Amino acid sequence: MPRKQSFVVVVPLSENGHDFRGRCLLFTEGMWLSANLTVQERERFTVQEWGPPAACRFSLLASLLSLLLAAAHAWRTLFFLCKGHEGSFLYAFLNLLVSASVVFLVFIASTIVSVGFTMWCDAITEKGTVSHSCEELQDINLELNVDNSAFYDQFAIAQFGLWASWLAWLAVTILAFLKVYHNYRQEDLLDSLVHEKELLLARPTPRTSFQEEKSAVI
């Protein structure tokens, strides 16, 4: 269910925003500089430009929206199951539109987080030339006036949650499309049956035709 995956995303993204004091590490640019220019050693990572806050905010808002809509979808499904009847064609069509919109938003958020975090890791590891990996660097104080002790775990969980949520919503969208298609075919079938019934009622029976002919002869 998309609700669980969305919850897995909201918590680590919120924690990271708190740890980094509102700064967004997605798409952040920086480099390692030596404190002593005469010594060719990388000693401290310096941020040239923090990532746009909108990137982190959009991902968090998309996750929150996915969480709320997943909860609403679960409640309505349970409601219809308890009532023992299915929704109308209009409800199925609206459900398809909402699900497709959420799939689009979550896909964008997933791409932003994946690409943005890759750029951050490329920056702090200088694309693999640093002796430590991106995961190992979360155990080292980068001296950025932020708490970077869990950034890798937070965004690894967030990426997993976002892509899992996208797959779950994609499955929901496919099922919603099949439901709309089924309802459309069912309504077509009902219209055809009604039309056939009208034709049968309008067509005179052999007994009626015989009585009409007999009356005409008399």
From TrEMBL:
The keyword Isomerase does not apply. Its main location: membrane. The chain crosses the membrane at residues 60-82, 89-113, 155-178. It is found in: Membrane. The keyword Transmembrane applies. Keywords: Membrane, Transmembrane, Transmembrane helix. Pfam families: Claudin_TMEM179-179B. It is a multi-pass membrane protein. Belongs to the TMEM179 family. This is Transmembrane protein 179 isoform X2. It comes from Acinonyx jubatus. The lineage of its organism: Eukaryota, Metazoa, Chordata, Craniata, Vertebrata.
